[in-house]
Structures are given as C-alpha cells and as structure tokens.
Design goal:
It is built from five helices and 76 strands. It is mostly beta strands.
C-alpha cells in the first residue's frame, strides 16, 4: 500500500510540475439498473462480441515519429449489408525495448484533472511527440476520467464504482499490463480511528454498486492541488465538510461548507459528507496528524496492486482482445454505440510485451469508421495480444510530430474534420534520446493541391534517433516526376490534375514526397456561395466556391480558380468577383458556368434584384422574448445591448446561454413578435447578418414559417468557431419554403452528440439582418410534349413534329432524345463530342451527364444513378425520368398506348 502524505512533482519528462493525487469521473450513466453489480464484483462477461464480416487490413505507409516509435497507416476493407466499406486505420507502434522511448499519461489544461483539453494541447504542454485520446469521462461534470490514471509514477485518479472498465499501464520495468481495477483506501486519525476513503479527485457520478445513487453522499474523498474544478465537485447533491491537511497535519476544518480555497501543493483537502462528516467531528481536530493509505485492487485476481509499480496508467472502457483473440465485452457497449460505425480509439500490446499499439480509426468522408466487433478484428490482425477500448466517436484523436518536423499536428481527420474535442486524458509518446548526427532529410509542405494553387516546400532534417534537426535548404534542388505543375525554386504551382512525386536533393542527401493535385473525379460537390446575381451591365456578384471531395474534405476556392463560360452576356471574374460587362439583346436570364478540371457549377443571373433590411434593432416596435429548451434545466436570456466587444451600432441583439445542466438538446431562443413572427416581404433567397461569436462551437440557427404554416430550420452557422464579429450568409433558397414567410426565432443550440466539446456557457450577438432578392431565374415555359415508344411521330403544344430517333425502352427504363426534349422545353443544351458529355441548363437548374456513365452532376452535386445516357443512330438518348425530375418537370406514361407526356 502507498501512503499519501503530500503532493508529488510529476516526474521529469516534460509532464509538468503540478500534480499529486487526482481525480476520476463517471460517464456512461445511461445503462439500465439490471447492469448494476455488487461491490465485490470480479471479472464479468456481459456481452459476447457480435459477429462481424471478415475484412482485410492493408498496410499503406509507415514513417518514424522518433526512435522506438513509428506511425503506420492501414486501409480496412470489409462488407456491410452486401456492400464494400472501407475505413482508414492509424497505428503508432511503440517498441518498449528501445530505451529512448517512453509512454506516459496526458492530462487536462496545464496538466490538471477536471479541466479538459485537446490532445494536441496536452501533448504540447507535456512535451510528447505523439499521442491519442484516453479515458471516457463525466460529460456533465468537470470532465474527469472515469478510471485510474498514473502519471510519472504518481496515482492521479482512482476508479469509480463502474463495472467492467479496463485500464492500460506500463510498469517501471517497462512491462505493459491491461486489467480492471477498483480502489481501496482508508483515512486514519491520530487516535487510530479509520474511515473508508472512496476516491481521490473524483467528479460526482452515479455508482453502479453500493447503497447510494450519489457518489459523494456519506463518503470521504481527497482533493489535491491538481484538481482544477471550481467545486469539489460540482453537482454532488451532498453538503461538504472539509479538512485542510498540510504536510500530514490538520490545519483547518470547515463543518457543513466548503473551504474557500484550492488545495495546497504541499497538502490536500479531505472532503466528507453524512457519516463521513460525523467521523471528522468525532475523531479529527486542528493540529492532529492524519494519514491516508490506498491501493488499487485487481478485479480479475482480487489482489491488491501497489500503484507505485506503474510508471503510467490510462483507463478506458471494455476489454476487446485477450490471448490474441476477440474477447467477450466486459461491459455493455450500448453507452459507446458499440454496434455503430464510428471513429474509434484503442490500445493493446504484443504477446511478448515488447510492442504497444496506439490505434485509431476514422469516420470522416470516405472513411466509414468501424464498430467494436470490427475493431477487434483489426487489433488481432495487427498482432495485439491484449487490448482495450478507449473513448471514441468525436473524442478520437491522434497527434504526431511528422518525421523531420518540430511541430505537432493532427495525424488524421476527426469526426468533425479539423476540430478537436477537449477530452479528459490521453496516452503520450515521449523521447529521451540525445541529439544525434544528421541521418537524412524529408520534405515539408502540403500533399494536396488544387489546380492553380501554389505551395512552398521546405527541407526538413532528422538525426540518427529520428528526431528533427535544422538543415539549410537554401541550395536544395527541386523536381517533379510528372507535368502536373512547375517549380520555381521551392515554389510549386499546380497546373493540372494528377499525382506526382516531388524530389529534393540537398548536398548528398535526398528525399521524395507524394503530392496529389485534385481532379474532377475526386469531387463530390462544388457550389457557388451566392444563389444568383443581377443581369445588368456593370453589375457584380460574389462567386466564392466551396468544393467538397469524396473523402469529405472541403476547400474554399476563389472564383478565379475556375474556367468560366458566360451564356447570354459577357463578363469577367477577378478574385471572388464576377462583373457583367455586357448583356446580349433580348436576354432575361444569363448563366455563368464555372468548371474546375471540367467539373461544373452554375450561377444564374437575372434582371432585377435587391437587398432589404430585415432588422437592425435600433427601433424595435415589437416584442423579442426569451424561450428556453428544456425550460427546467437550460438558463439564458435575450436582450438588446450596446456593449458587445467590437460593436459599432447603438443596439444589437444579445443571447446569453447556460447549457451546463441537463442532457439532450438544449437551446436559447430569441422569439420575434410573440407567436406571430416577423413578416417578410417577397421571396428572398438569402439572409445576411452580423454575428458576434464566442468561439463556443455551438450551433446558430433561424426558424422560419412559410405560407402553409410549415416550419423550416435554417443553418446560420453550423459551428460558432470564431471570436468577435463576422458577417454570415444563410441560404434560404434550398429549403422549399412557400412564400410569403415569417422569421419566428433565432437561437443558439447544442445537441447531445459531441456536447462535451462545445462551451456550455457563453454569449453571442446578432445585428444588421438583411435579405437578398435576386431576380428570379425562371425556367422556360414548358409546353406539353407527347412522344410514343417506337415511333418518330411527336407533338409540341399540340403541333405535330417528327423525331430523328424514336424513344425506346430498355430493361424497364424509357429513353428519349435529349436534343429534341431540351429544344422543345426551351432549355439550353451543350454537347462536348470529345468528352461525350451533355449539359442542360434552364432557370436555376444545371444537369450534366456523360454517355455510358451512371452518375450525374445536378446543380454542382455529384450523385450515382441506376442507368446512364446512351447513343442510338448517332443521337443521345437519356433516361426521361432522371432528366425531367432534375429540371422539375412532370412525366406521364400510358402503358397501354406507350405514350409519353412531359409538361
């Protein structure tokens, strides 16, 4: 057993100076009562691993992080519901036989417990060169880990009374271990009287054993200087009696109320309630000596475990692999959505105990995530002998210092793209290697470029221990293996789509680096951020674009990144601005078609258009009230204010929120004009507003009601991810609203999924709400078109005509000649003979197809289809329903007469 007498420094590997004994918390509180276990529980098998389709794990690439640690990337391929699915898997493999590499626990902000932080910040603070997220945590409290944590040999947290939870540790003789632990401790007074110690630095939680549903009722806990929570703890539902102990001597007792101080570095605060508080009143007084003893208890053997034997420990969730095979789950996996395909994190070690595997999988873009059963397969294929689950989903994060670089970065996309969730703990990789001789060089810079984009590449050096060293790349020679771009010194300009290998030679050293220039086949969508423009000489419209690739990554493009074609007018694009130079006589709707490597998007320009003020809050003559959801737990208010930072107007609308209590979706609404809403004239297609953001990552939305009384929820900002004022534009044209409409509410909202990464309290502001009214891009007036399968006879608006080729039916699909139908409808049609590509545009619609290809691009978005356009007698025929539905037309078919009607 280990005696607690004072705080400890955290060791010497950059882990920090502050800490002693710290906390744990409880999450996953949604399990049914039937899962509760007695206090004496041993190893329990709750669920058998669900069968998963056999998959393959293919190694893609690997690189060193430091001596004894390398990153390896894999592609997991499996079958789900008869369809192939793939997920990216990333591993940091640590060789424990290498004396220069070490593992240690990562803690919250400034190496504290109860103040979560991102793994990137934790790694930077501690000096780690790589790391992944660790334990699950109490989302409604301070965010402390649920299980044991040992940092640099010091027990930082103790496990809650939650069954089936496992922990990973490395002993001081560098042996990895995975086991399930409980906590045993006592406090002994000067008279020799003892009381059970329930834990160290724990958040409040609901125990899964014992007589109370409150963890801090009738119990005693220790809090040290490492505790970062504002209370000891919050939401405890138990009145505290607290004792200040410094250097093992009682200095102060506060009966029935918390001490108004933080725990000192050379002591701790003993926190008690109920029967524990009675013990303090009866047995402890100022000036007494007090000691605390504790140990961990293995739940698989029942033996006490001295935490002093461990150099580090980080806890997690269920065991996944045991004896080199998938294990039965030690805990229900419902609380971690174990059957769902999500981002995942795990840790395990090899049979001989020499290798540790830090594992993550991605659920982002074309990487579809894995469930726990698949994660078990992956771990077994990696060579894991014993392994366990860590916190996953939005918490999954891997950080690395790429070879030759000094800075840390995210190793892959999180569930949110680039946003990293603040978490309770992590596992860090550290190096103690000395400075070595220069071993080689590598290339620094982006590995993805857009056509026309320029990037500067740099030479990075690394030593014999694979740690970064500064090198002079001034005279480096750069080249590219293919003609996708050109070099000027170290600056590379991408000129066409494709892949290339960049080579650099500096002195006797050389390195290569693969770079992709994005091509049209990689694009999932490309949209112009403006809905429409005005068609008049000298008119301008902003044309910034958003491109989303099939892998889920998004890029902002300037308008001049595209090649433009103007129909019905002449114009030019400079930067993000399109200027109309002249308008063709008789043209009422013009079209600006932009292409990136051939991939299309379109902006209609119409005569007319305007902008009107909706609300500037200077002279509001109606009520704006506050509404809360759920009203029992959410706090907040709405008011007009003049003192938001950076505010230039006399008045703006302020929304203050507090989502710290309760669960599920929570929102604070600014309700406009009671139940009536604020009436809006005409048919606006967009709304701009100035938004003061608190960088909380919460969601800002507006609710409109249309002429049918239907409610439409419009995204203003999916993430409030900036600080200060910013003009934001919300598209109103894609929600199918029937005009006239009313603005009912504007609100800030958080949802349960990922809530722990967003700020629970804050303030936002809204000002200068405006509506945009472009002239309407009206589709050509459709005439009634009649055709018959197998016949060249047809009619347009009742007038007979003859077709060049007959409509046909193939395998249940009706095909019609596209040129005839387009011309009959008055739509524009373009044919590219070289690419076998047909483009049709009319009104606000653009449709593009390629002969023989089962996909379309409709209004900038790519989608797959069951059928493809075909060629018959040198004429292009298209699936009629696909064509008509994209252009908003109605198609009829009489099976008895084989007659087709379009109107």
């Amino acid at each position: 057993m280990r005696k607690l007498v004072r705080g400890y420094d955290q060791g010497n590997r950059g882990i920090g100076k502050k800490v002693a004994i710290v906390i744990i918390g409880g999450a996953l509180l949604l399990h049914p009562i039937s899962e509760l276990a007695p206090a004496s529980w041993k190893m329990i098998k709750i669920e058998t691993a669900a069968a998963a389709s056999s998959g393959t794990l293919k190694e893609l690439q690997q690189s060193y992080v430091t001596s004894g640690a390398k990153r390896i990337d894999y592609l997991w391929t499996t079958t789900r519901s008869g369809k192939t699915a793939q997920a990216n898997v990333h591993v940091i493999e640590v060789d424990l036989t290498n004396k220069y590499v070490q593992l240690n626990a990562l803690s919250g902000k400034n190496n504290t417990i109860g103040d979560r932080d991102t793994i990137l910040n934790m790694a930077k603070t501690s000096g780690a060169v790589a790391g992944i997220n660790g334990d699950v945590y109490v989302t409604t409290g301070e965010g402390s880990p649920m299980g044991s944590q040992i940092t640099s040999g010091t027990l930082m947290t103790t496990p809650m009374q939650i069954k089936g939870m496992y922990a990973f540790g490395v002993t001081k003789d560098r042996q990895p271990k995975i086991d399930s632990y409980s906590f045993s401790g006592t406090v002994t007074s000067a008279s020799g009287a003892t009381f059970t110690l329930s834990g160290i630095n724990q958040s409040s939680y609901t125990p899964e054993s014992g007589d109370s549903t409150y963890s801090h009722a009738n119990t005693m806990y220790i809090y040290t200087s490492a505790w970062a929570g504002s209370e000891r703890p919050k939401n405890s539902a138990a009145l505290p009696t607290e004792v200040l102990v410094r250097n093992g001597v009682v200095e102060q007792i506060s009966d029935g109320t918390a001490l108004t101080m933080a725990a000192p570095k050379d002591g701790y605060i003993l926190r008690a309630n109920g029967t524990a508080a009675k013990f303090i009143r009866a047995e402890i007084k100022v000036g007494d000596k007090l000691k605390s003893d504790y140990s961990l208890v293995s739940q698989t053997t029942g033996s006490k475990v001295d935490p002093n034997q461990f150099e580090m420990m980080v806890s997690g969730h269920t065991i996944l692999v045991n004896n080199g095979a998938a294990s039965a789950f030690s805990r229900s996996i419902t609380g971690v959505s174990g059957a769902a395909y999500l981002s995942r994190s795990a840790v395990g070690y090899s049979k001989d105990g020499t290798k540790v595997y830090l594992i993550t999988s991605e659920q982002y873009g074309d990487s579809k995530g894995v469930n726990l059963a698949e994660l078990q397969q992956i771990m077994v294929k990696l060579g894991v002998y014993k392994g366990m689950n860590l916190d996953g989903g939005g918490s999954t994060t891997m950080i690395e210092r790429p070879l030759g670089q000094f800075a840390l970065q995210s190793a892959h996309s999180t569930t949110y793209g680039t946003t990293m969730r603040s978490v309770a703990s992590g596992i860090g990789v550290f190096t103690t290697a000395p400075k070595g001789d220069v071993k080689g060089i590598t290339v620094g810079g982006t590995n993805v470029l857009l056509i026309g984009q320029q990037a500067t590449f740099t030479v990075k050096g690394y030593d014999t221990y694979y740690n970064p060293v500064a090198v002079d790349g001034t005279n480096a020679k750069w080249s590219s293996s293919s003609s996708v771009g050109t070099f000027k010194g170290a600056d590379f300009t991408a000129t066409k789509a494709g892949s290339t290998t960049i080579s650099v030679k500096s002195g006797s050293a050389s390195a290569t680096y693969k770079v992709d220039v994005v091509g049209q086949d990689q694009i999932a969508s490309m949209t112009i951020d403006s809905a429409a423009g005005m068609l008049s000489k000298g008119a301008t419209v902003s044309v910034p674009l958003t491109m989303t690739l099939k892998n889920g990554k998004s890029y902002k493009l300037s308008g001049d990144s595209l090649k433009w074609e103007f129909v019905g007018f002449t114009g030019k694009v400079s930067g993000d601005t399109l200027t109309v130079q002249s308008v063709n006589e008789g043209t009422t709707t013009g079209y600006a078609i932009g292409r990136y490597d051939g991939y299309p998007t379109m902006l209609p320009l119409t005569q007319g258009g305007s902008e009107k003020a909706l609300e500037d809050f200077e002279n509001v003559n109606y009520g704006i009230s506050t509404q809360l959801t759920p009203s029992a737990t959410t706090k907040g208010s709405v008011k007009l204010t003049s003192d938001l930072a950076g505010q230039t107007s006399a008045k703006a609308l302020q929304l203050t929120y507090d989502f710290s209590a309760g669960t599920g979706t929570k929102a604070v609404y600014a309700v406009f004009n009671g139940t009536s809403g604020k009436a809006i004239e005409g048919s606006p297609t967009a709304m701009t507003l100035d938004v003061y953001s608190d960088k909380s990552l919460n969601w800002l939305r507006a609710e409109f009601t249309d002429a049918d009384g239907k409610s439409h929820l419009v995204d203003v900002a999916k993430q409030l991810n900036w600080s200060g004022w910013k003009t934001v534009k919300a598209d109103l044209s894609s929600y199918g609203m029937k005009y006239p409409i009313k603005l009912k509410r504007v609100y800030v909202v958080t949802i349960a999924e990922g809530a722990d990464e967003r700020a629970a309290t804050g303030t936002i502001g809204i000002d200068n709400m405006k509506l945009q009214y472009p002239g309407e891009a009206v589709s050509s007036q459709a005439k009634n078109i009649v055709m018959t399968i197998g016949s060249k006879a047809a009619s347009i608006g009742g007038k007979a005509t003859t077709l060049d080729v007959t409509p046909i039916t193939l395998k249940g699909t009706t095909y019609v000649p596209i040129r005839f139908v387009s011309e009959a409808l008055g739509a524009n049609l373009q044919w590219d003979n070289k690419l076998n590509r047909v483009t049709v545009f009319d009104g606000a619609h653009l449709l593009e197809m390629v002969i023989g290809k089962k996909e379309i691009v409709a209004n900038g978005k790519r989608s797959t289809t069951e059928v493809a356009p075909i060629v018959r007698n040198n004429r292009t025929l298209i699936p009629i329903r696909l064509f008509s539905e994209q252009l908003g037309l109605k198609v009829g078919f009489d099976n008895s007469t084989k007659k087709i009607t379009i109107n």
